[in-house]
């Protein structure tokens, strides 16, 4: 038994948990530096940062921000608003229902990282700091000053844990490092946002419209970035801006308002998505849009299996392939041995039913397994499908899929006389081929979302959640575990097959190599599972956002070459370390990982 003694603390000495900043600058001076530095960063975007237009974005103009300057302008403006709100400026208090200091720190840090990334990129690309114009030096100094000032803002320091006198040097180091990390986390933490007061319905609907419009603008800007440096800067700015808005409490308020008008929010989100092709001048980015929707729809189907029922499926992409092959074989392709051309509605039924049948056939003998054993079996099914599609070429097996050459020259869809393969002029806008398929895929995504919502809130949905949480306890309460899991497997497979029918026509060709377990290009089983985990299991918006990010980021970071998967893996490791519940978590799952979080007053039937 050991006895610890503590020296007396003088009355005028600061206590360990005093409200001080990370940097020893008086708080009032730090707040002034953060405010002034943010304003100066905004002003610097109207100056030239380099003398030559060889750097992408042409940062040589005065009075007209371009390229990465626009991102610094956005970050600086956001930081300035939060800085003024921290002074209690009238009318700005509504921007920070959870407090302004943490939001200001994130906004300033994001502006600093974007600005210094730009300065370093200019120096490396053009050959040194000598290529900077005065605006470049001004923004570097301004953002650094703002960051130092923000880090001086006061916060409540956590109490250190008691030290055991018998600790070794390594244990003492771990204790001190853990306490320092706890201090850093406390410096960027914010309080609980005050509840949003009820507003008139029209006002809340206008807020929802504004949020959706902002999301459309951000997505359109991100997908339209023309060079690598700009996209990396966009990721930095968007990430820190979202963190700042979250710490300010605005995300929580927006969530509360959208929860009161769920149907309006869902309909508005699809309307905003439908506006995307009209924001483009050509069909280039509509191509990315339709592939993102295909990927997101399949991920949402997997979310039923993994997120609601808790079944780890590592071969889910095979169901997408079954639907694509089934539709391709009956859609008039010259490579098809059947020589038939079904209308679209019949091809959709064939693809969905084929995936449903395969889901039942695979699930019936395997769903009595649990955990890792089920994952191994589903992984084997995915590989068996790909190998079987390779071998059914008329040589190694029956002539069905044309082997590694696949089903080629799949004709474009023609729905009620509307040819999706040609351009159409609508209200003065030219809608190209991929935009046509974008609208079709948007309708299918809406169907999948409807199925997910209705099934998740139904009796079978509650049974899925019960099986996910504790299968033994659920069966003891009268739930037929095998039947419930088989239904989840069949529904998920059907939704994947539904998306596969459209994918076959979009890509013109269906080959076995499109349906791998892992690869650098989605969709594949690993990316699908990552999209569900990244976005948030058991939610609707989570897999949709996760799929969009996982498709868009590899497409924009092709310059990394062989290091794409390395960067992707590091990003997932960091996400699982700091936000294991996903970007848009299920509320119950969020409480599992953050026990100190405040419990929600109301949980939906599936815990969202």
TrEMBL record:
Major site of localization recorded for this protein: membrane
What are the protein's UniProt keywords?
Cell membrane, Membrane, Transmembrane, Transmembrane helix
Q: Which domain of life is it from?
A: Bacteria
Q: Which InterPro entries match?
A: ABC_transp_permease, LivM-like
In terms of CDD domains, this protein maps to:
TM_PBP1_LivM_like
Q: How does it sit in the membrane?
A: Multi-pass membrane protein
**Mind telling me which Pfam families this protein's record contains?**
BPD_transp_2 (PF02653)
Question: What is the protein's given name?
Answer: Branched-chain amino acid ABC transporter permease
Q: Where in the cell is it found?
A: Cell membrane
Q: Where are the transmembrane segments?
A: 32-52, 64-85, 106-124, 136-155, 202-224, 230-250, 262-279, 285-307, 314-332, 344-364, 371-389, 434-452, 486-506, 526-553, 560-578
- Is the Repeat keyword given for this protein? no
The species is Streptomyces edwardsiae
